[in-house]
Amino acid sequence: MALQVIGTGLSLLRYRRDLRPRAVASSSETSTTTREEDKVKLGGSDVKVSKLGIGAWSWGDTTYWNDFQWDDRKLKAAKGAFDTSLDLGLNFIDTAEVYGAGITGAINSETLLGRFIKERQQEKGSCEVSIATKFAALPWRFGRGSVLSALKSSLSRLGLSSVDLYQLHWPGIWGNEGYIDGLGDAVEQGLVKAVGVSNYSEKRLRDAYTQLKKRGIPLASNQVNYSLVYRNPEKNGVKAACDELGITLIAYSPIAQGALTGKYTPENPPTGPRGRVYTPELLTKMQPLLNRIKEIGQNYDKTNTQVVLNWLICQGNVIPIPGAKNAEQASEFAGSLGWSLTDTEIEELRSLASEIGPIIGFPVERL
């Protein structure tokens, strides 16, 4: 979910003009059907999505993911992630207008997702998918009209007449009340089925909830950084407020950008910007936790990734959205559903994670 604002502003300039959406298809038409019992409602809205979603931040991105390169091989892999997710009933896909900066060889994530939907409709006749995207609260955007304008441009790139969830990606430096009004307008105009926010503190969350409630519109979700090793939403009141108000917490970076998968070690840390957070020193501190995750996973015939995603789901009122770069990752994510850790295992992992110490979050979390 989160983003690096540097490098994305220029790419957004190309999309500032209000383009009319082309209604290629509704984002809720059926194909491989997700069973109703495998779905949950987004907050107080009528929108139902899979209990685990897929994040599309890396699709087309060259500013944070993909070793700063995008090519046909990665495009094919992303398409495989999309198709496999839907085949396995993970029908909730999260993107944003700023995902996929327009740097050499890159392509906007929304554009890719729209292409994947159209291709699947052509291949299978229909496509059951619930799309969430986001509005970037950039400094030059003012008022409710800017939200509607950006939404229509997103719909054009996606090739859809509406989306299931539209979110404010982060709080604006100013003008937040106007942005919330814009979300309400989008619902009333039928351009979205539900609205949410992202990276909102408890106070901002409550204010947005109250403002929308006056119009009879539920605030469906708050998308925040949340994982076994990054539990700020539990500490800053956001998780409790979501539970109290009936707002779904959508967890981005639920596997700590890969650090909880067991793939990385002190001798083999992640590359790129992630390496500045998950350093050899931090990965050394994480080893006791990772070892215990692996042991628990073996008892269930599950991977580290499946264990930590299940841990989040067990917190209740949480939809994790791990990023899938390929079909194999999407398939692995699906294996986090249909079973549950015990209460003892949940608390044991929480206790081990607490010994690691603080982990750096994203700048947008502090707005």
UniProtKB/TrEMBL annotation:
<dbReference type="Pfam" id="PF00248">
    <property type="entry name" value="Aldo_ket_red"/>
</dbReference>
<feature type="domain" description="NADP-dependent oxidoreductase">
    <location>
        <begin position="51"/>
        <end position="352"/>
    </location>
</feature>
<dbReference type="GO" id="GO:0005737">
    <property type="term" value="C:cytoplasm"/>
</dbReference>
<dbReference type="InterPro" id="IPR023210">
    <property type="entry name" value="NADP_OxRdtase_dom"/>
</dbReference>
<keyword id="KW-0560">Oxidoreductase</keyword>
<keyword id="KW-0521">NADP</keyword>
<dbReference type="InterPro" id="IPR018170">
    <property type="entry name" value="Aldo/ket_reductase_CS"/>
</dbReference>
<dbReference type="InterPro" id="IPR050791">
    <property type="entry name" value="Aldo-Keto_reductase"/>
</dbReference>
<dbReference type="GO" id="GO:0016491">
    <property type="term" value="F:oxidoreductase activity"/>
</dbReference>
<dbReference type="InterPro" id="IPR036812">
    <property type="entry name" value="NAD(P)_OxRdtase_dom_sf"/>
</dbReference>
<protein>
    <submittedName>
        <fullName>NAD(P)-linked oxidoreductase superfamily protein</fullName>
    </submittedName>
</protein>
